[in-house]
Known about the structure:
By secondary structure, the protein is mainly β. The protein has three helices and 19 strands. It is about 15% helix and about 35% strand.
Amino acid sequence: MKPKVTMIAWNQNDNYVVTAVNNHLLKVWNSCTGQLLHDLVGHADEVFVLETHPFDSRIMLSAGHDGNIFIWDITKGTKTKHYFNMIEGQGHGAVFDCKFSPDGQHFACTDSHGHLLIFGFGCSRPYEKIPDQMFFHTDYRPLIRDSNNYVLDEQTQQAPHLMPPPFLVDVDGNPHPTKYQRLVPGRENCADEHLIPQLGYVATSDGEVVEQVIGQQTVDQDEQGLEPSILDGMIRQLQLQQDQRTGADQESASGGPQNGEGTPRRG
């Protein structure tokens, strides 16, 4: 197998460079001379996560598709801590990303099964206040492209970044109580009635019809004349204001209306 570098990271003071190779080894190099200092052995699959400690130049974190998370002392070439991400009944979960907290006392990882793993000092009691399963209701919603090749949410025909803050749901799409909905940025000060999502019936890929969060007014609902939600009205108003600002900016940049029209055409 031809060796290939899958990830590279400098340590905190740039004295060392660590490379992850597809033969599952981590190599520590002197960044000034290019001399190979250590081979770090422990991973059993490819590594795509290398994170340096925010202030301790000796410490480097690595994580890979084998489910292993290592804390290394790269000056000595030794393991400091090791964690294996075993999931009951499902084997191990590949670790896709890790980040240290700014104070270096904690780090968080995400895996292939949708889990957020938080490591650090102290008790885990504060984290017991939130549900085990938290997803956004928009996480697996299909996207489409319009005639300008811009991405739109298929159901609402809106740009994803202009949609209201999503609702928190469990793995089956059932919404969590309102106290959890306020954890979503943008919903902190919403009234209770604005934190109750709209529910609808959605057909899954295998033909089963399940009740899930719709969250926003759909095109079908508009055609049926159903009353829109307050959030949808706010989003439409924001979109209209943005369109007006864009039109005004284009008109002022061109010195007046284009092509004899009252408003300039959008690009």
